[in-house]
Specification:
mainly alpha, 4 domains
Amino acid sequence: MSRYADLLPFNINESVVSYFSRLAAALDYNNAREFGNDTRVDFNGLIRGNDQALESFADLLECHPKMLARGAVVRSDVDKTRLIAGNRLLGSQMSQSPLRFCPHCVVTDEENLQGRRGHRSFGRLTWLVDAIRTCPLHQTKLVALPGPNSPLFRYDYAAHLEKGLPSLSALVADAAPMKQDTLEKYIASRICGKPETDDSLEEFPLYVIIRISELSGVVARHGVKASLDDLQDAERSTAAGLGFDALSAGESDYTRFIRNIARRSAQTSRIYGGGALFGALYRTLLQATKDRAYDPFRKILRGVAIQELPIGSANSIFGKVDKRQVHSVYTASREFGVDERLLKKLIARSELVDDEVTARPPNQICLNAQRMEEFVSELVGSVEVPKARTSVGANRMQFEAIVRGKFLVPLSGPDPGDRVMRGPAIKRRFRSSDVEAFLDRLSKLPTKAVPENMCDMETACRKAGCSFMEALKLTLNGDIKAISFATNAQGIAAILLDPVELKAKTSLSDHGCLTLKQTAMSLPAKHETLRALIDSGYLKSVTRRNPRKRFAQTLIEPEELERFKREYVSAWEIAQIRRSAIRNVRRDMAPALPAFDPQVVRGLFYRRSEITL
């Protein structure tokens, strides 16, 4: 090495431009370009990483050009990229002017490094990368220091630093604390040749890692409308670290990270497109379509969008979509020509989605494409209640009974009599295939000769005193033997039954109890008195169904009536036995008192054990 190396050593992680600038300042040159003119080293060539300039500088230092190559930033005029320590970056990702540095490192360099005093501080290669905003040693934010106004001083590290020396103490005192994010650590390890992660990211150029990490983190943390330029350094650093953590975790974890972004964006987007889903990340990948290094990430975004969102052949996300995987209510209504509001209501009534989802707009209510197509096909092939009722030949009450009995199940909608209805009000619809199957079941019922007393089901039920549901179940189960069909009707209206047989099949066994009228005659007592005795608990009643009409009745068991008559006797019966007027019974029975308060039971009764007849 020449005397220049003795004057100032070339540090590890130092840029060639910084070293040349420091040498010029140490030799009392006004700027690095003047030093270059005297030594025939093209300073502008060093800035571009020109091989000839590096060789000239190496000759000046009496060393091999490879020693300087590790600190060179090589510019490409073809794709406008920069090659730094073997890693390719975009020009927009480099920050060479104004000077960015750590004031703590400037002080530390001057105290600890070798070489001429006042010129020991050097410019790190990592300070040139815009994504690195933090000094890893001092955990403070890098300071941007504008240089002299003259173009002669552009990229001149020593000249910039000399201008800032008077304020160095203040810069040290005011240095803002800032934690190094994981992306910064990774960039530094790549540039310094000490990768700290697995080899999964080594296949990607460094500029791709930086761009994807930053944009992914920004969209995930700040939404699709945010951009890098809108963020402060601390916010940008946090977002970049978030994106890099997802990226470095592997393809599956990064895909999950992108899927969460898409799902969140889908909840607020009115129209689904790449920009609306992934913001600046999508736009950047779209603009760089010729750069194949981004292809794996375009593939991930495209796959997530197709799997999660209602995107079909009419949409494009990094190319036309071949096959739809998700349908929304909006897209399905347009594709299949069904009413959007009706489809939304029917899905709201189903168990396919929860209440939170059904509250969203139609374009955000999504189902698997195949399931949605099946659902729409059922809807297209369905009929509303009036047409279904006409088809099965039933009146309104009969049709509701058929639905309650599950002989016909609505495609979607509330069951008859359901007071707690889920979702918005909706007209019930029935599958045409279900209606046809029900009619086919009726038509296959075995028929008998038509007796003279046969009549339609409504009339037969009325004569037999049974419900339509009872008659229908007996008929479909084959318990009714005499069945025939009218030729001028269809479905339920065509079925003819024998009311005598129907009554025999539906009548209940006799309960053996006495009606209130029979009980009142047996006591004897007025009806009001009998009701008062029952209500007061003196005479116990039971509830049984009428054997013929099947309505619930209040009845008295014979045993209970006999018990009551053994214990009590009415004033009317006493008067009959004594052959006296009823008005004289109370006087004749004194001093015995009535068994019950006459004002309560509206009658006069005595205990048999307390009187003499």
